[in-house]
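User: We ran a pulldown and think these components assemble together. Before we commit to crystallization trials, I'd like a predicted model of the whole complex to look at. Sequences follow.
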Amino acid sequence: MTEASIQGHGSAKRLLAHTPFSSVSHCPSRTPRFTNASVSRRLVASTRASRKQPEEEEHDYAGLLKKTWKIFSLSPLYKFKPSKVCLTKYERSLDVAFSQVKTQGWSTETFGNEKTFFSLYEGLNFNHNDAQAVQIQVVEKSDSGGQGSIVLNALLICVDLDGSPVPDHLSNSFTYYPVILISGNKARTDVLLNWLEQHFDCQTSHVCFSNNDLRWMLGMWSSQAVAMKAFPVLLQYSLADLCDGISTIDCKFEAAFCSELWERLNGSAFSREAVNEAEVNKFVTALEEHLEYTMHIMFSKLCLSEVGTSVAYVSSQGKLKLFSNSGVFPALHLICEIVKDRFQDIHYTLT
Amino acid sequence: MDLQREIITSVISRCRVSSVRETLACWDRLSSSQLNNSVFKNGTKRKMVEHLVEFVQENRLNDDILGDLELVYMQLHSRRKIWLVYQLLGNDVSLNLDPRTLRSKFLKSLQLKWKDGRVLGNMRVFAGAVWLRMNLGQSMIRGGSGKLPRVYNPNHSVFIVTFPGSPYVFINKAAPRLLNVVTEGVVDALNADSLKDIKLSGHQVSSLADIVLTKNSKSMLNRYREQEDRENPLLVGQERKRKAVDPFTETEGLVDEERQQKRIKRVVLEKKLGSEPQPVLETLDYKFNVDFHGQELSGMKCSTSVEIKGTSVLNGLYQIAASGLVKFPLPKHLTAVTSSARNSFTIESAHKK
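Assistant: Here's a predicted model for the assembly, 704 residues in total across the polymer chains.
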């Protein structure tokens, strides 16, 4: 990557500062939608649901499981193409971004000899409208020239969205990935997010989940069938704002019990394709009522700070850990939907 | 010499720079002029270690005296460990042993049981309690990965606190293998039948002592807390005070209809949880094995575990109860933590099938 081409990108950015999803925010009057239109969310992939196929063979999501990811949201990327040729181009450009930070001198200690690799990540495309998942790996080469170690992993995902915020006539110029999952240190994460903002004129932000989002996750994921040795269902309430002495209260239920409870309250979840808000509320309220009965603490008035199920553990601060191959779709789909809904709530719908 | 250097390094590196001098002063081996050496005032930890190693060599101090240094460090920094409380059971428990006899009996018993290496024992009286340090050495032959084991492993030191006349023993949380040997040693040395884990644990020795020693107040014990406050120079300014809960304020023109109820609640709360600050505990564990009580579903067994975590859980409970987040009447497992002297409960439904 030469300097001219970097400047090229820079000037492109200036020219396109007024793209609809620009990070330079000067938005016209927005009409936020306060009501959440989608009160029902899907449990199975749309393609699978329509074809009524028997269980497909489970894809092995290597490198995605048992790792703590931080979730960031992205606005649609301008002129991002997930093709082999373009990805090689992006590799060079991001390499330059890393080396630039290093030459600026203020963070020489945190950066080494970075080399980035872009590749397409298979197995996350459940719908033909979805942009193909892209994996970004940053490898730090040691000075001795041996095998480097991976210092940052990132994954641009778009999992089976029902409708995209990008209108049809713009769909050629914009690629929408609602979520980027990153595991790596903060300095490198910042470089990557800055690079995305500058080169694809998008907006990145750290995702925090609300109490309601966490209840959705709890309800949807614990309805799933569980294996013998499943992680317990966790409801962690944070009391740090309410009193000095107690920081958190962790409540754990057996996973098998939760799936049985779901079945008794809302019917079997195995043949279902969607879950609605009333069912989720009923389920979570039942758990909270039981906790209130045993502990006499009014859990329904407290805020969840972390929820865990056999599918995944998620904290309100946007940390995610996935546990099983079968849980990848429900987990990532729900997260993508939540992030997309929030994005659409803020950005007025383009016509 | 390696061992001595390792002990000094491990102690100094765990101290804060500001608390090194206090720790050394309590050790009572250096004179005040030596303590005022500029190394201890504004030197790096590395220099302090070098200085101490020289001092130890000059005065030919042995391993036992250096063990005292670690024991002193632990007495002043006892909040860094989790302490488990055990109760001695048996009819002929000797509760008023001379501390020196206790140490030698204990050491002998451990030396018989521990086959891996040398056992070092130290004893020191602090704040009215007898503190023991047992370092269970490692064998130099056993090294799994071909590496020689460390000469000195601070995690192999187990600390035991006993109170004269009281059947309770505090032991810091250590590897199960070490803990097993040490509990057997305690049983032998004190001539007890067995040692019972009473499911009480926490970081603050003084709070745990408050809980168990006031429980059987028949024995006239000196309060550990008061003595520690006097003897531990690092505790200055760490007094615990309960944050005042907002008093009932009367705003003009505002009528609080539930005023009477709120006042009654406050009275009940003070009666149940006490108006004094509570002992400091960091966790409360509950395991429930009861019928499910949500959404009027019946006949479902449900096992849950609830863990309350924080810097001072009992004071926190008081606060949230005062702010109306706890349903009255208060259940016994919330109010009886101090009186039953445990912070881990298992609750099963009364009617078993």
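Chain B has three domains: 2-79, 80-235, 261-348. That may be worth checking against your pulldown data before setting up trials.

User: Thanks, that helps.
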